[in-house]
Amino acid sequence: MRLVFLGLAGAGKGTQALVLSEKLGIPFVSSGDMFRHHLSQSTDLGRLAKGYMDKGELVPDEVTIKMVVDRIEQRDCRKGFILDGFPRTLAQAEALDRALGKGPVEKVLYIKVSEEELVRRLAGRISCRTCGTPYQLDALPAQAKTCPKCGGELYQRADDKPEVVRKRLELQWPEVQGLAGYYAGQKKLVEINGERPVDQVGSDLLKAVGA
Ligand SMILES: [Zn+2]
Fold first, then answer.
1. Are 13 and 110 in contact (CB under 8 A)?
2. Ligand 1 centroid to 112 CA: how many Å?
3. How far apart are CA 31 and CA 181, in angstroms?
4. Residue 44: how many CB atoms within 10 A of its CB?
5. pLDDT 10s digit of each residue in the chain, 211 long?
6. Which of 157, 167, 196, 207 is labelled catalytic?
7. Spacing, Cα 153 to ligand 1 middle (Å)
8. Active site includes 13?
9. CB pairs under 8 A, 24+ apart, for 51-60?
10. 37: which DSSP letter?
11. What pLDDT score was predicted for residue 52?
């Protein structure tokens, strides 16, 4: 079961991918975790990536692809994997197809959430200045002024301000649309309505993968 998650930031991909990974017993491969692993272990690929990042340049697709392939060739991925955060662009999707060869991506799960809803979710988020934990404003007790975990001060990150969120979504939108079109052309795209409770989205995802 080789799966890719697709969707805009805030659509709930990470949460759903983790749940699905546990249900299916296949690893959740997040591009963010993969990068952190290579950078913290200072692997060859990590040092290569760091070279670009130190110069303020984007890490080239070929380096990222190598990290992905290296990860999904490990034993725990023999029964499959769930990719999140990669591919981000059409060029990366094509490179991934070439790299996977005879074991291609089977299904692409596109969690669709409208821009209004995403802005509501993301702009309603506050974080702890001390431990960094993000909270959904409406999930916190009304009188909470400090972090329930560590007592740190809660604030809205510049990243989470509505106008910044909107700008970020506008930048991501064309890429997500491009990828959706690409995988629809390969008859791999499954659209999931992400504007419903987490468990309902989860059960749709299970149905979509035939589990
Ligand atoms: Zn905290």
1. no
2. 31
3. 22
4. 10
5. 999 999 998 888 888 998 999 999 999 998 888 999 999 999 999 999 999 999 999 889 889 999 998 998 899 999 999 999 899 999 899 989 998 888 899 999 999 999 889 888 888 888 999 998 888 887 787 777 899 899 999 998 888 888 888 998 999 999 999 999 999 999 999 999 999 998 999 999 999 998 7
6. 157
7. 7
8. yes
9. 59/35
10. H
11. 93
The DSSP call for residue 146 is: B
Identify the active-site residue in 13, 107, 121, 188: 13
23 assigned to active site: no
How many other C-beta atoms are found inside a 10 Å radius of the C-beta of residue 21? 18
How far, in Å, is the centroid of ligand 1 from the Cα of 150?
A: 4
Specify the amino acid at residue 118: L
- 157 a catalytic residue: yes
Q: What's the pTM value of the predicted model, to 2 decimals?
A: 0.83
199 CA to middle of ligand 1, Å?
Answer: 27
Specify the residue for token string 């130190």. Answer: 54
- Written as six digits, the tokens of 6 are 């697709």
Ligand 1 centroid vs 137 CA: distance in angstroms? 14
In the residue annotation, 121 being an active-site residue is answered as no
pLDDT computed for residue 161 by the predictor: 86
Q: Where do the domains of the chain lie?
A: 2-114+173-208
Length of the chain, in residues: 211
CA angle, 168 then 180 then 18, to 5° = 75
The superfamily in CATH containing domain 2-114+173-208 is P-loop containing nucleotide triphosphate hydrolases (3.40.50.300)
Catalytic residue among 88, 120, 129, 166: 88
